[in-house]
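Batch manifest, entry 17 of 40.
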Amino acid sequence: MVDRCPKSKHILRDGGKTTMTLHTLKGKITFVTVVFTLIITLLVATFSFYLFRSFAIQSQITSTEFNLQFIGARAREKMVAIDSLVKWSTTNAQVTAYLEQTGNRMALTTYDRVKEEVMNNLAQAYVNRIIITDLNHTKLIHTGMTMSESKPVTVSNVSHVLPATFVQNEGWNAMGSDPFMIDPQIQVLPIQRVITKSSSTEVTGQLYLSISANLILDLIEDYAISEGSSLYLTIGNFFYEIRKDQFMLIDTPHTTEESYETAGENTRVYAAKINGHDEQLLVTCPTGYQDIALSQSIPIGKITFERQLYLSLLGTITVAVIIFGLGLTMLLNKLINKPVAKIKERVHAISQSDFSNDPSIEWNDELGDIGKGINHLSSQISSLLETRVSDEKKKQELEYRMLQSQINPHFLYNTLNSIKWMATLQQATGIAEMTTSLARLMKNLSKADAPIISLEDELALLSDYFVIQKYRYGGTLVLTDSISKEFYTIGIPRFTLQPLVENAIFHGIEPKGGAGNVTLSAKDLGTCIEISILDDGVGMNAEKIDSVFSSSTTPTSGMFREIGIRNVHKRIQYTFGEEYGLTLQSEEGLYTLATLKLPKRTKGGEAWQSN
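Output type: structure tokens
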């Protein structure tokens, strides 16, 4: 008897205790539970981490946007004040009258008025200088907040900032330097305007303002930015990076589409590579004045989040899951492992031919249901063994009867042979030939083991069958075999041609009431072999042809009535495939043509080739 107990590598017993391995049910459940818990934990922790990171990025963007909007609003106030000074200087009647009159009679009063306007302006602290002159540079008014740090400005050198060719207004378009400042490194926002007559567009003078860059720098003096971030100023088509109280002109960054939500309607957030650095987020807020905007970069790789806290959290969760797994192992040992071991012992006893019931494995749970099933199975096995002994006895009786039944076909075959010899001795050749054909048919029926035979053997069976039918109908039937011998090795299911010829005789030629012809032919179509059976009987209509293939059996009156037309078609398809089979063509009163499509294979399954 083979020992079917589990091998020691699956369950290790030591002093009655069972050690868990992955080959045990308990081990598999514990392993799957722990792994599943770890995966869920890692997924949740990772999702939380990236969600937190996304919130951190969005929070920093929102904070940056708010700060930039606050600074931009304060800068806009100063710029609007400067713009009001520009408008006053280019439209004031006293200034225009001074530039239009001959001589310098109004020079002092006009100078005082301009200085007063500068001193009353909200942004007066950032007006380095204001210069008003006529087109010919014969008149000059010059004042400002940096006169002590300035070189002299005269009618002869005022063309450095207001050339005579300047007759068209320009906006705030770039940072620059003031050529009249003693320190040429001081950056200013230069503004140039033309002064026209109040009653026309005729240009009568020119205006130059030098606005200190501190207008922006003072606003960001206490502005705190994180490491790796930078502030930027956009003026028209110029992009400046603010470094150590200086505006450094750099290339405008190439940006992608916006991908973050912002509070401001006009605020834009891009991913961009700025001045050759790694990709950063660029938050841009317009000041609301002309096309001047402030921007701040946020390094994507340095978004502040507690990475160490995240790793610590993962470590803590992992340890907790392992402890959970150990506790689960102990619980499973009590709830599952011991009952399973009991069931395994019972199964081993059954394998040793012990089919008695064991009530101790029938608990009130799922494992108890298995135990009940095992007890029921053992009872069934015992019953089956008894049944098998009885069946073996019946089988011996059936085999004996089958041996007896095999005597009958052989007895009939031998009897037909005796009749043949008696007919030969009495010179009844027709009876001898008919008996010989019937004997061969009976012999083939009794030995029909191979389902596929050669076409040559099938034609021999058909010839024997036709001999019998020829004598039956008194020689009015003619079978013409036009099949070339090169097709004789083609494989064909046994008794395929006979039912078709039988159908041609009984349903085609016999109803005609006279002589009839059946013609056999074959041809190579390249991909398959086509065998045709043509009769000149009464034919069939389309409805009759459809009924032949739709019926499960085709009624015949011959000796092979169980093998109908549809049966032939289905047997060919079952044997060779759906692309092969039988088709019928017929015309009432003229003919019926049955066509078989067979594969180019021999009865052994080898590829067939024509000679």
